[in-house]
Write a structure and sequence with these properties.
- The chain is an all-beta fold and 365 residues long.
- The chain folds into three domains: 113 residues, Spermadhesin, CUB domain (Jelly Rolls), CATH 2.60.120.290; 84 residues, LCCL-like domain (Ferric Hydroxamate Uptake Protein, Chain A, domain 1); 122 residues, Jelly Rolls (Sandwich).
- It is built from one helix and 29 strands.
- Strands 15, 16, 21, 24, 26, 27 and 29 form a seven-stranded mixed β-sheet that branches. A five-stranded antiparallel β-sheet has the order 1-2-9-4-7, with no helix packed on it. A five-stranded antiparallel β-sheet has the order 10-13-18-12-11, covered by helices on one side.
- A hairpin with a 2-residue loop joins strand 15 and strand 16.
- It starts with a strand and ends with a strand.
Length: 365
């Protein structure tokens, strides 16, 4: 219906909102979502926001949930008659969600997330916690699919951590610990705040540069920590490249007649001066990295060449190989199409993209 806003639904979790959320929802609209979980599981619904203009018995703008298996209904809900709890545990694997509006003046509308009973957060935490003052130093939360598209700010970056007022699950996507199209369990620790959180563009999201907060959030994965019974950060070392190769390279002759070779070896991230560039007439260009042996590759950082020329790559695809002859395009978990990564928007900033799941290979293109 024309009242539908941001929507990402998967069999195990998802996120949905009314149109224009968190701005005022439009007049005379309706949207019907049908949520279905795998058999023998039940649905957990988390109400992030139910802000519909009040009316008697919520007769004008309303939210109504129906369980077709049990023949039960929940609601109607509006501002003066909202859900009794922010978390609703269903007794079935199917539910319909109806959002309806008539003429009104105010209201943000609806933000709702869900997960199956296979994936509840510790203490059944699910969804949109932002500030978390009541939680322990180490904790775990389940983030539903679709967090990337919700409204709200994040401050920080994957290496420094995030200000604790950042939208939690959105920050998890930015940090690359979950894929937005899948969601997943995230483990965090609360650490002392820092003076300045630097901004970063990562996994298709911009974070903000911000000042000191009392606490910061660090996302963890990889190695188990006996002290807090949670995983610690996986090793973040840069992989060494044994050799570079490319489809072509640019042999530049500058205005003084001097040669400059933009060869593949100059593609290493820390190289001073100019970078690699393909021959300008090249239609299909690729850069190949030989890691020497098979490695576990969890992400990639790209940067343009800010010296002499304003060059950068706006989007790219990734392929991997174990033998350098047979290549497999990267698609991500459950995807049917080759993934297109969002790259740089200038020639000097670094952009990080995570591989979820990681790539196990010797060669990367």
């Amino acid at each position: 219906g024309d009242g539908c806003g941001h929507t990402l639904l998967t069999p195990h979790s998802g996120t949905l909102s009314s149109k224009n959320y968190p701005g005022t929802y439009p007049n005379h609209t309706a949207c019907l979502w049908w949520l279905r979980a795998p058999p023998d599981t039940s649905l957990l619904l988390a109400f992030g926001d139910v802000d519909l203009e009040p009316s008697e018995h919520c007769a004008r703008s309303f939210l109504l949930l129906a369980d077709p298996q049990a023949g039960t209904a929940y609601g109607p809900y509006c501002r003066n008659a909202g859900p009794a709890s922010p978390l609703l545990v269903m007794n079935s694997s199917s539910v319909t969600v109806l959002f309806n509006s008539s003429s009104h003046r105010s209201g943000r509308g609806l933000l709702l997330s869900y997960a199956t009973s296979q994936h509840p957060g510790r203490e059944d935490r699910l969804g949109w916690e932002q500030a978390l003052p009541h939680l322990a130093v180490c904790f775990s939360v389940y983030c539903p699919a679709g967090c990337k598209g919700i409204d709200g700010d994040i401050w920080g970056n994957p290496s420094q951590g995030y200000r604790d007022t950042s939208v939690l699950c959105k920050a998890a996507v930015h940090a690359g610990v979950i894929a937005d199209e899948l969601g997943g369990q995230v483990t965090l620790s609360r650490e002392k705040g820092i003076t300045l959180y630097e901004s970063a563009f990562a996994n298709g999201l911009h974070s903000k540069r911000g000042s000191l907060s009392e606490k910061r959030l660090l996302f963890h994965r990889g190695i188990f920590c006996p002290a807090c019974h949670l995983p610690l950060p996986a090793c973040g070392d840069m992989l060494e490249v044994a050799a570079f190769n490319a489809s072509s390279w640019w042999h530049e002759v500058d205005v003084l007649g001097q040669d400059r070779a933009w060869v593949a070896e100059r593609a290493a991230l820390g190289t001073s001066g100019h970078s690699w560039a393909a021959e300008p007439s090249s239609e299909v260009a690729w850069l190949e990295l030989d890691l020497g042996t098979r490695k576990n590759i969890t992400g990639i950082i790209t940067k343009g060449s800010s010296e002499h020329h304003d060059y950068y790559v706006r989007s790219y695809q990734v392929s991997s190989s174990r033998d350098g002859r047979n290549w497999k395009p990267y698609r991500g978990s459950g995807a049917q199409e080759d993934k297109v990564f969002e790259g740089n928007s200038d020639s000097y900033g670094e952009v990080f993209n995570a591989f979820i799941p990681p790539i196990a290979a010797r060669y990367i293109r």
